[in-house]
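Sequence, please.
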């Protein structure tokens, strides 16, 4: 295995816990000399000791041997599944696993809250951008969206309550907003001051539509 250094990994993990070689030796029931030889790569621990070593350091065998184990989700060590594009993203992690593309139990309600300037916002959860903050780009949320002015478009899995929106608004529930520069598609009622595009709603939509 290229650049394999089991001894160095053991030494690094031991120092991270603030342990001496003597303390590690006592915990494993071996001699100080044995630990010293491991860390010097003069020999390797007995295979029966490997589970104890990983338990002591709180790592997996793959991590101990410097391998990236295949995991469900997206391991942080392998890089995140998007470009460094300046977007604000709200994601869910379980340990080191990114669950962004996995379903979250319906009883769990999470919300992404933010104050300050933003280019784009992408969230699997509800999004609340505090009043007075302007989103220069788009907002894409798996749940509801509550915000001030959005220069781009808004897409939400639930309702949308915003100020002016420069682009389109697409919502799974009702839409309440100011002027809309594009079209509005709502799963329930749509209430807007004006819209330059079409209004599609499964309910009533009081608005002053000015072309």
């Amino acid at each position: 295995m290229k650049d394999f250094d089991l001894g160095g990994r053991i030494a690094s993990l031991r120092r991270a816990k603030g342990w001496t070689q003597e303390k590690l030796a006592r915990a494993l029931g071996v001699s100080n000399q044995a630990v010293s030889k491991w860390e010097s790569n003069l020999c390797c621990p007995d295979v029966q000791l490997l589970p104890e070593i990983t338990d002591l350091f709180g790592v997996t065998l793959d991590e101990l041997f410097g391998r990236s184990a295949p995991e469900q989700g997206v391991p942080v060590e392998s890089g995140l599944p998007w470009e460094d594009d300046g977007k604000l993203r709200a994601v869910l992690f379980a340990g080191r696993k990114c669950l962004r593309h996995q379903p979250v139990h319906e009883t769990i309600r999470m919300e992404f809250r933010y104050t300050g300037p933003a280019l784009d916002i992408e969230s699997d959860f509800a999004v609340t951008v505090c009043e007075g903050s302007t989103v220069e780009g788009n907002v894409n949320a798996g749940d509801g969206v509550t915000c001030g002015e959005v220069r781009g478009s808004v897409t939400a899995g639930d309702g949308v309550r915003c100020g002016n929106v420069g682009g389109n608004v697409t919502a799974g529930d009702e839409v309440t907003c100011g002027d809309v520069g594009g079209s509005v598609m709502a799963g329930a009622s749509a209430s807007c001051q004006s819209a330059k595009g079409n209004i599609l709603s499964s309910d009533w939509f009081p608005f002053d539509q000015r072309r």
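DSSP finds five helices and 16 strands in the chain.
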